[in-house]
Amino acid sequence: MPAFLTGHFWDISNPEFWVAIGLLVFFAIVIMAGVPKLVAAGLDAKASKIQSDLDEAARLRAEAEAMLAQIRKEKAEAEAQAAELLATAEAEAKRLEAEAKVRIEESTARREALAERRIAQAEAEATREVKSAAADLAAKAAQDILAARIAGAKSDPALDAAIGQLAGKLN
Predict the structure, then answer these.
(1) pLDDT confidence bin for 170, thresholds 50/70/90
(2) 111-115 — which CB contacts under 8 Å span 24+ positions?
(3) CA neighbor of 156 nearest in space, from 147, 168, 167
(4) What is the Cα–Cα distance from 57 to 35, expressed in whole angstroms?
(5) Where, by residue number, does the polypeptide cross the bilayer (predicted)?
C-alpha cells in the first residue's frame, strides 16, 4: 500500500509530508515558469534540426548516387572509346603491315629486275668483248697467214685481188 494513503503520512510533523509539499511546489513553479513549453520548444527545435540533417543526408545521398551513376556511365563510355580506339589501331596496324608487305614486294621486284638488267648488260658486254677479241684474233691470224704466204710468194695475182676486195669491203 502506498505511503500517502496512510494517516501517518498526512501528519505535519512527518518529514515525508514536507518533502511531498516541496516537490509539489517545485512542480508548480516549474509549470508556471513555462519550463515544459521551453523543454518542448527545445525538443521540437532539436527534432526539426535532426529532421533537416536527415533531409540533407538524404539529398546528399541522392546526389552521390547520381554522381556515381554518372561516373559509371562515363567509365562505360571511356571503356567503349578505348575499345574502339584499340580496334582502330589494330586495323591501322594491319593496313600498314599489308602496305609494307606490298612495298617490300615491289622493292624486291624492282631490285630483281635491276639485277637481271645488269646481268643482261654484263652478258652483252662479255659477248661483245669475246666477239671483239675473236675478231681481233681472227684478223691477227689472217694477217699472219697472209704475211706468211706473201713472204713465200712475192706476188700472187689472186691474193692481190682478194686483198684489194677486202680493203673495199672493210671501209
Answers:
(1) low
(2) none
(3) 147
(4) 32
(5) 17-39
Q: Which residues contact 16 (CB under 8 A, 6 or more apart)?
A: 3, 9
Closest to 150 measured CA to CA, from 141, 159, 161: 159
Amino acid occupying residue 147: A
What CA–CA distance (Å, rounded) separates 101 from 108?
10
Coil, helix or strand for 13?
Answer: coil
For helices 15-32 and 35-152, angle between their N-to-C axes, nearest 10 degrees: 60
Q: Are 163 and 146 in contact (CB under 8 A)?
A: yes
Instruction: Look up the pTM and report it.
Output: 0.41
The answer to whether 155 and 164 have CB atoms below 8 angstroms apart is no
Nearest alpha carbon to residue 20 among 2, 34, 32: 2
**Contacts (Cβ under 8 Å, ≥6 apart) of 133:** none
What is the enclosing helix (H) or strand (E) of 87?
helix 35-152
Residues composing the chain: 171
What's the rounded Cα separation, in Å, for the pair 55 and 57?
A: 5
Q: Tens digit of pLDDT for each residue in 111-145?
A: 999 999 999 999 999 999 898 888 888 888 888 88
